[in-house]
Every structure is written in structure tokens, then in C-alpha cells.
Amino acid sequence: MLRRNLEAIALQSKLPDEILVAIRPEDDPESASTVQDFRIAQPSLCVQNVEVSIPGIVPAENALVQAASGDVACFLDDDAIPRPFWLANLARHYEKDHRIGGVAGPAIDVVDGKPRVRKARFRNRVYFPGIILDQSTRHTDRSLRVDHFRGANMSFRLDVLREVGAFDAKLLGDCFRFELDACLRLREAGWRLLFEPEAEVDHHEAPRPASRGRHELKTIYNNAANETYVFLKHWGRGPKGLIHLLCAVSVGNFPCPGILWALVGTIFRPFTSNRHLLGFSYLPHAIMGRIRGWRMASQAKGRGK
After folding, report:
1. Are 296 and 290 in contact (CB under 8 A)?
2. For residue range 199-243, what is the model confidence (pLDDT) as tens digits?
3. What domain range is 173 assigned to?
4. Is 57 strand, coil or helix?
5. Are 252 and 129 spatial neighbours (Cβ–Cβ below 8 Å)?
6. Residues 25, 30, 35, CA angle at the centre, nearest 5°?
7. DSSP secondary structure string, 156-188?
């Protein structure tokens, strides 16, 4: 997947100024070798390894942010294959509007070898007390202002991302909601975020070693903790934070079920193949995760962050 990813970048209509690849060479010598082979095959491109020692996407992407030298940082997962005009369609918005702080495109799920192209019903929005609308795998009819991105295919002005502190390393597990946190901070600082439907990548979802499975109990716990922690960072632990926690425990959502969502999942899961209908067996870990997120926010406030 990494080789295919790099080859697709080399075929972009607008070539990047530099390509940085985060690698843990001791744990993943094959990826280091793949980058070296690509560098030899494409001597005209500036390709660099950025070595990291800590597992996880946030340490890797923060290392890339620190090492990058351009004006705009465009992030791709190694299992996301960009289409030929991906980079050009991201770049044109930064060149046209200085108020744009970030641009993202659809990460199109590839199912059984075929891109699953679907139209969006709504845009990526965040609503109090914690409703997250996410259409990052779908196409819109035009460019839209949004509230958040998905990490597989996103970009930011580099100086702005550094100014807001890049990505939060205190998140648990595979750092669920790390991009939501960064997007909320950019919007609070007055920057616009844009979803560009023509900045497409094909997403061949790879396994996640840090969480070992989207629906393992430890993953549900980490997801719930991270989500509540991110919201409390922005809403505080006062009345808004308490309302969020109450709604999260009583209702919940796809990856972090509350009581109502667990009830719906338990009733309807035998009759559907929807993998997001999580029943009551997941509820205790989700609730404990929410409590952990409250404590994480309290600790962050105590440190003045």
C-alpha cells in the first residue's frame, strides 16, 4: 500500500515540493526499504524519511509537522491512494483565499476492489452537545465550508497548524478524534475549513495495530474517552460539559454507544448487517471511557493546557 501511495503521488498533475514519510525503522524495516527504493526510482522528487520512536498516528503526524518546510501540509494515510488531480485541487483553494486554514477531500471507501461512490446528504458539522455529522467518504456537488475533516485525506496551512499546537498527543489508543480537535481549534482561531469533492483518494482501509479492532471493548473505551475529552477542551467542564456528558451516556453515537444507542443496537442487530449497531455489551466500557475523558480534561486544565 505504501508503494502504491508513493507512486500515485509521483503521478500528480501538480507535484509536491517534498514528500515526508513517517516511519519506525526498527519496527517496520520493509517500509523504510520501500521509501528508499522509491527515492532511487524518482530522483527528481524530494523524498525524506521522518523517523519516530513512539507508536501511533499523532506522534507520527506531529513529527511530520515539525519536519515539513512548505506552506501547506497535506496528510495522507498510507492506505489512501490519491487520484491524479488530488494535490492540485487542494492547492487551488489556498492560492485563491488567504482565509482558508484547511482543505480536505473525500476518502472513498474501496469495497471488493471497487470505489464506493456515494452522494452526501449533509456536510461535516459539529453540533452541541456532541452530534458529529461526517460525510468524509462521500461526494458533494460543490466545495463546502465544514467543521471538521477525516485524517486519511486532509490538509492545513502549516504555520496555522503549528500555531494551534498541531495534534494532541494525550489522546488514547489510535487517537480517535485527533483531527476533530485540530479542526475545532482552527475554527476557534477564525480560520475557514473547506471540503473539496474533487480532491479524491481511494481508501483501502488497513488494520489498526494500536486498537486491534474497531469494536474491541478497549477501543470503545478509548474512543469514548477521546471524544469527551476533545469536546470538554472546547466547551469546558461547566454546564455545557455536563450536558454533553449526560447526553453521551444517555444517547451516544455510532462508535461510542450510550443507553439509547445500545438499546437500538441490541434490538435491531440480529436483523441487519450494520456493523455500527453496538449493543449493551459495549455500554459499560463506553460509559467508563466518558468518565475517563472527563478526568483527562480536568488534568489538562490543571496543567493550564
Report:
1. no
2. 999 999 766 554 457 789 999 999 999 999 999 999 999 999 999
3. 2-203
4. helix
5. no
6. 80
7. EEHHHHHHTTSS-TT--TTTTTHHHHHHHHHHH
Residue pair 84/11 in contact by the 8 Å Cβ criterion: yes
User: Where does residue 236 fall: left (phi above 0), alpha (psi -120 to 50 degrees), or beta otherwise?
Assistant: left
Angle at 188 between CA 139 and CA 87, to 5 degrees: 40
Q: What is the pLDDT of residue 113?
A: 87
Q: Which amino acid is at 25?
A: P
Q: Are the C-beta atoms of 286 and 215 separated by less than 8 Å?
A: no
Ranges under pLDDT 50 in the chain: 210-211
SS3 40: helix
Q: Which three cell numbers stand for residue 38?
A: 522509491
Does one domain contain both 104 and 146?
yes
Query: Cell numbers at residue 221, please?
Result: 473505551
CATH number, domain at 146?
3.90.550.10
Cell of 116: 464506493
Same domain, 195 and 229: no
Same domain, 261 and 193: no
Residues 6+ apart with CB under 8 A from 97: 192
Report whether the peptide linkage leading into residue 129 is cis, meaning its omega lies within 30 degrees of zero.
yes
